[in-house]
Design brief:
The protein has about 150 residues and is an all-beta fold. The protein folds into two domains: about 70 residues; about 80 residues. Helices cover about 0% and strands about 65% of the residues. It has no helices and 15 strands. Strand 12 and strand 13 form a beta hairpin.
Amino acid sequence: MVGNPYTYDKNGNQLTFGTLTNTFDYANKLTKTVNGSITTRYDYDHTGSRTTKTTAGVPTFYPTSRYTADTGTCTNTHHIYLGPTMLASVEIHSNTPTYHFTHTDQITGSNVTSDSNGKTSLHFLLLPIQSAWSEIKNNVAQAAILV
């Protein structure tokens, strides 16, 4: 195997990759991620919905599935849905809104997010080989093939 091998637990949860280590609870919920010297903790409510993500002591709150409050960047994000489909997100930072529109391919799971000028800000593509994905965010490409 070339590069950093992935390790998984018996439930299929990814435990390690390089310097990244994940910890899961009895319900297979991610509770902690350690990447080098940075630790991120995740908290959930009684329904299993994430309520808080704390990275290096800075919390991000998830009061509902449609709203996020990031205290580290002072950014609030509102997600706009039509039924179960997310249509857009509005990020508000320093009282300035930034709009992101979600374009979903209902057949393959591909997603493209564009800004209010129509420029692609995120492209997420699920590939039909094994378990694979590629992501392009701010003109930087990432990809993974999970065996």
